[in-house]
Design a protein that fits this description.
Largest sheet of chain A: none
Radius of gyration of chain A: 20 Å
CATH class of chain A: Mainly Alpha
Distance between the termini of chain A: 64 Å
Number of domains of chain A: 1
Oligomer: homodimer
Structural class of chain A: mainly alpha
Order of helices and strands of chain A: HHHHHHHHH
Chain lengths: 202, 202
């Protein structure tokens, strides 16, 4: 092995360790509240030493913030990727909701972020409502696009229907979270989609 | 004062103390998570002695369960009272949502119950999804009544629109909770009502 490759390998190992710690923290934050979660449980859950954990995250609050920001990145990536696809405004709007639903059902970091965001106390919840604001902005732009390309009825109130969509999405997320830790979210969204389509379609 | 009135007065004082403790506990559970809430903070917040607190509630879990069951009673009372009023199925359905929204915006016990219900851990959350199930059942019966009395379009899928209503209600509740501790909930519901009416009206 050449001397040059060593730093790269070390760097990759550090990235892998960080990922493992975030996954472990996500599982801990999914089981218990922020206040109950213990720094050393995260070490145990992720298989990292407490030294390595401390090297990457100085405190439990740092860990929670890293999870919330990873959640936001992943949700925003799905929103923006789907928004950039081909399709009518209506199709993309419904696809955004379906794709976000699948992300939430499958991704433990996103799930942990949702749990953290809903807790009344803690040092971390101020920044937690960001993804919802992003979603409202994009829903509004997609409803407007659908009105422009005539996939959505021209008489709908864009702001109102963007809010309705946002509300339906959040409600589905919360109910499936209570029901079965988000397993049913894609199915719930799929079930409601024809009704939303009927409400909006031109 | 006659000897007969003494037990009644004592009983009333005991009821008042219990109410004061529940209110104090509600304020504590609204500020911090279940895990962070301390039994002695509830005593301080409610102005009760720790002895009186212990007489009424043996543990923090007992307190939380009492709040969840008071929340359920109050929500169910609003649901049933509104369901029994005069009006078409559609009118009552929309009124149920408005009345529940006002209850949540105004009642600190109900607010604390919602907060407790959303927390991932704790000994108390198993019984917390009850009010939502009650709401789905009543929404379904009101949609069916609206179809029967022709205030709601006969071609709607009763189960699907009951679920849509439930989802919109829960989503509004969660978003207003994040935004401003439910102050905006009645306004949000009022804003969405014409859209829901347009979707359902015969």
């Amino acid at each position: 092995m050449s001397a040059q490759r060593m730093p790269q390998l070390k760097q990759q190992r550090s990235i892998d360790t960080r990922e493992a710690i975030l996954s472990g923290a996500a599982r801990v934050f999914s089981r218990v509240t922020y206040a109950e979660a213990r720094y050393r449980d995260v070490a145990a859950e992720s298989g990292a030493s407490e030294g390595a954990l401390y090297f990457h995250f100085r405190s439990k609050a740092d860990l929670a913030k890293a999870i919330l920001s990873a959640q936001q990145e992943r949700m925003t990536a799905v929103l923006l990727d789907t928004e950039a696809e081909d399709g009518s405004g209506l199709e993309i709007l419904l696809r955004v909701m379906a794709n976000l639903g699948s992300l939430i059902a499958d991704d433990e970091i996103v799930q942990a972020g949702i749990q953290l965001a809903g807790q009344p106390s803690s040092e971390v919840t101020a920044e937690a409502s960001e993804p919802y604001l992003e979603w409202v902005r994009i829903a509004r732009s997609l409803v407007a696009r659908g009105v422009a390309d005539q996939s959505i009825r021209v008489d709908v109130d864009v702001d109102l229907y963007a809010e309705l969509f946002n509300t339906v999405f959040v409600g589905s997320q919360v109910l499936s979270g209570l029901e079965d830790h988000w397993t049913s979210l894609p199915r719930r969204i799929q079930r409601l989609t024809p009704a939303l389509e009927a409400i909006l379609a031109a």
